[in-house]
Amino acid sequence: MSPAAPRLSVVVPVFNERDNVAPLVREILAALRGRVAFEIVYVDDCSRDDTLAALRELKREVPELRVLHHVRQSGQSTAIRTGVKAARGEWIATLDGDGQNDPADIPRLLAERERAAPEVKLFAGWRVQRRDSGSKRWASKWANAIRARMLRDDTPDTGCGIKLFEREAFLDLPYFDHMHRFLPALMQRAGWKTVSVPVNHRPRGAGVSKYNNLQRALVGIRDLRGVAWLIARSRLTPVREID
Length: 243
Prior knowledge:
243 residues, alpha/beta, Spore Coat Polysaccharide Biosynthesis Protein SpsA, Chain A, 7-stranded mixed sheet, 40% helix, 17% strand, Nucleotide-diphossugar_trans, transmembrane, cell membrane
C-alpha cells in the first residue's frame, strides 16, 4: 500500500465472525484494488471465538488491513466509532462483518458521491430486496415506518450496514450507543444532506445473528425518543468570519 494517506477507509466491526472474515476481506480487495487508495480497518469487539486470530493471520498477507481490538465488548456503534477515529481516509465506508453487505457496492456509493452536491455527507445503502427471514423483514419494516414518522429523515432503510460518509462530519455527531442506526437523521440534524442508494443484500454466510427482534424493538423505542429529543432541541446557526 502507498505510504500516502488513503482516500477511503473501510471500517468493519466484528463480534464472533471468524468464518466470515477472510471471504469478506478478499471481496473488499477485489472491489477496491486499482480503483482507489484505501485501507481496511477491522474492529474486533472482544470476540469469544477465533475472529482475532483470523484477522492476525490475514494481516500477514494483506498490507491494506489494520486490526483494532476492544479489550471488553462495547457494541457495534462503539466499534464503528473506534474504527472511524483510527481511520486515515477522509471518507469512510462501513460494512457489517457478517457478509450480508456486498463490497462490490462500495464503488457504486463512491460514484454517487462524485455526482452529488458537496453538502451531501452520507450515502446510505438501501436493501431493496432483503435476504433475511420473514419475521426479521416484518420487524424491520415496522421499525422503519415508526422511525420515519417520528424523525422524518426521508430514509427507507437506516439499518443497512453499508454506508459511505465523510469522516469529519461523522465525528462531529453526538455519540451514544446504537447511534449507527440513526445516522441519516443525525446527519440531517447537523445540517447535511443524505442520499439513499439501492444496494445488494445477501444471506448470512456463516455464524448467527447477534440480535433478535425483541432486543431491537426494546432498544429502538428508547433510542427513537432520544434522537427525536435531540432533533427538537437542535439549533443550526450560520457563521461567517469577519475580516
